[in-house]
UniProtKB/TrEMBL annotation:
Annotated ranges, domain Glutamyl/glutaminyl-tRNA synthetase class Ib catalytic: 3-305
Family listed: Belongs to the class-I aminoacyl-tRNA synthetase family. Glutamate--tRNA ligase type 1 subfamily.
Organism: Skermanella cutis
Name listed for the protein in its UniProt record: Glutamate--tRNA ligase
Record's subunit section: Monomer.
Record EC number: 6.1.1.17
């Protein structure tokens, strides 16, 4: 059997983090088995579906590098096929037309609620002759669900799950206007697309029992099911925006790398021994449904930050420069030219060791390409005032004739300068750091001086050593 999985989001908003994990699990399972990963946009809710949401979903998947096979399928465009199946079920006696008015249904639910009964359709048109239909009422088409026995689902995550058929009502397949419902469309599409494994959130488990009835009514083979526990916040509560229930685009804008987000989402509910850092290649090799836990996982930004820091340290320096340059350009309000990009790339080994996100990396790198005079604020400004300014002016005099402009020789020269004045190295290095970076925190300052070059280094010292 060739494995076929699908990711089927509704385009009513962004690709949220829970949906991204579902897509990842489906993608990994298909790739592990050398199978097919399909994308279906479930856009039957025309009032809420938008083109912008479709684009956000596609962009999110592309950013995560979760490539799908073939073209994305629009569920709405297959509505005639869905309706055709409903009419076949009418012909076979597995569905019927229901002429109950909206007022009748509301009265039925109110009576059930008052009696403390479950609110579900009572089957009032299940066995009635259509000749009794009131004039002028457009009927819905309902599934004639089994009323006795039970439905059993063998789930790869939840195990064997049972429900009494008496708890399942006759759900609507076609609305009064002839349009198919989500429950019908999903089953028809999964069957027609030859989906072998339905991997989705466990909030769909109830839907599965209902959808199984459609498969059986049509005589179709069931796919295998795996219902994944939902993601909760770090406090154990249902995931919300304050926990991290954001669009995938928000994680990109916050400065996370796609490989870090993939690794983090993989570990939200799936495990392989004690392994925490799992490359995409390893994930494809190892992923199976048996590794998915039954308990909800908890979203933790601290763990995501640590993973992202790891992947940033591994990332190509030129790639990181390309990712942070737009951020820096926005902050500085100007374009960074080729020489500035080259400087950032050469500085990257020292920069990326300390940052956890691309935003942090951009903040720490900005001083390299800032126009003079660079901004020196806070405690750094105190270091280059008064005695600090005079000290830097003297240091500049020592460095000006110095030709061996590399970090090792610069450090040696600055150490000699400090010793000749009876000072500890930090008393000179810290004002120098403030002058060159505008901050009290930077990569090793002698590396910074080497990267900036002699001319720029002396110019930045002069900017703070002399009155402005």
């Amino acid at each position: 059997m060739s494995v076929v999985t699908r990711f089927a989001p509704s385009p009513t908003g962004f690709l949220h983090i829970g949906g991204a994990r579902t897509a990842l699990f489906n993608w990994l399972f298909a790739r592990h088995h050398g199978g097919t990963f399909l994308l279906r946009i479930e856009d039957t809710d025309r009032a809420r579906s938008t083109d912008a949401a479709v684009e956000a979903i596609l962009d999110g998947l592309k950013w995560l590098e979760l490539d799908w096979d073939g073209e994305a399928v629009s569920q709405f465009e297959r509505r005639d096929r869905h309706a055709e199946v409903a009419h076949r079920m009418l012909e076979s006696g597995h569905a019927y037309r229901c002429y109950a008015s909206q007022e009748e249904l509301e009265a039925m639910r109110a009576a059930q609620k008052a009696a403390g009964q479950p609110m579900r359709y009572d089957g009032r048109w299940r066995d009635r002759d259509p000749s009794e239909a009131p004039a002028g009422v457009a009927p819905v088409v309902r599934l004639k669900a089994p009323q006795e026995g039970e439905t059993v689902v063998q789930d790869h995550v939840q195990g064997e799950v049972r429900v009494q058929n008496a708890q399942l009502d006759d759900m609507v397949l076609l609305r009064a206007d002839g349009t198919p419902t989500y429950m019908l469309s999903v089953v028809v599409d999964d069957h027609d697309m030859n989906v072998t494994h339905v991997i989705r959130g466990d909030d769909h488990l109830t839907n599965t029992f209902r959808q199984v009835q459609i498969y059986r009514a049509m005589g179709w083979d069931l796919p295998e099911f795996a219902h994944i526990p939902l993601i909760h916040g770090a406090d154990g509560a249902k995931l919300s925006k304050r926990h991290g229930a954001l669009g995938v685009d928000a994680y990109r804008d916050m400065g996370y790398l796609p490989e870090a987000v993939r690794n983090y989402l993989l570990r939200l509910g799936w495990g392989h021994g004690d392994d925490e850092i799992i490359s995409t290649e390893q994930a494809i090799e190892w992923f199976d449904l048996g590794g998915i836990g039954r308990s909800p996982s908890r979203f933790d930004f601290a763990k995501l930050d640590n993973l992202n820091a790891h992947y940033m340290r591994l990332a190509d320096d030129g790639r990181l420069t390309g990712l942070i340059t737009p951020i820096i350009e926005t902050r500085l309000g100007r374009t960074i030219g080729p020489s500035g990009r080259d400087l950032l790339t050469r500085a990257m080994p020292g920069l990326k060791q300390r940052a956890k996100t691309l935003v942090e990396l951009a903040e720490s790198a900005q001083f390299y390409v800032a126009a003079r005079p660079i901004e020196v604020t806070g405690k750094a400004a105190d270091l280059v005032a008064g005695d600090g300014a005079a000290l830097l002016a003297d240091l500049a005099d020592e460095l000006r004739p110095f030709d061996a402009w590399n970090s090792t020789d610069i450090e040696t020269k600055v150490r000699e300068f400090a010793e000749n004045r009876g000072l500890k190295l930090g008393k000179v290095a810290q004002p120098l750091r403030a002058a060159l970076s505008g901050s009290t925190i930077s990569p090793p300052i002698f590396e910074v001086a080497e990267l900036l070059g002699k001319t720029e280094t002396l110019a930045r010292i002069a900017d703070v050593a002399q009155p402005r």
